[in-house]
Design brief:
about 160 residues, alpha+beta, Thiol Ester Dehydrase, Chain A, six-stranded antiparallel sheet, about 30% helix, fatty acyl-CoA hydrolase activity, Thioestr_dom, mitochondrion, HotDog_dom_sf, hydrolase
């Protein structure tokens, strides 16, 4: 019986699954994902090496459990964390994310106002590290904590 189940799963993935997952590149506009997740993000505070944004969680960012989707949370850590690097006085071209980790401590729900607080921990010659906390604004409770490591583009001295 186990072999049959594996064969069924394999067949589904090879035939039906692949056909249902096909998406034409022209179906989505450029930067579709960023727009989907970041629309509604409001800038609140900028300090040297720190930025804070707020947003109300919209229905489009909920998962099947009706709370903020982890993919949206990771994108917020990546984007808001990247914005903190220029706030620390470094060039706007903040490079490429090489590591993102997120610990989920609680859930945030529909229409809940959240705060995304990013602080630069270190910027070296090639790498920057940023800590990002996502809090429920009403209670100040941290519901997710992230860390972003970015490779910084080489700057020519010529």
């Amino acid at each position: 019986m186990e072999k049959t189940d594996l064969e069924s799963a394999k067949r589904y993935l090879e035939e039906k699954g692949e056909a249902s997952l096909k998406v034409d590149d022209d179906e989505f506009p450029p930067k579709f994902l960023e727009h989907l997740i970041l629309r509604g993000l409001r800038f609140d505070v900028i300090e040297p090496g720190r930025v804070i944004f707020t947003m109300n969680i919209p229905p489009r960012l909920l998962n099947s459990g009706k709370y903020l989707h982890l993919g949206a949370t990771v994108t917020l850590v990546d984007v808001v964390g990247s914005i903190a690097i220029p706030a620390a006085g470094f060039p706007l071209d903040t490079g490429t994310s090489v590591e993102i980790n997120v610990s989920c401590l609680d859930a945030a729900y529909l229409h809940e106002e959240i705060e995304i607080d990013a602080r630069v921990l270190r910027v070296g010659k090639a790498v920057a590290v940023v800590s990002v906390e996502l809090r429920k604004k009403k209670t100040d409770q941290v519901f997710a904590q992230g860390r972003l490591t970015k490779y910084l583009p080489f700057r020519s001295k010529m």
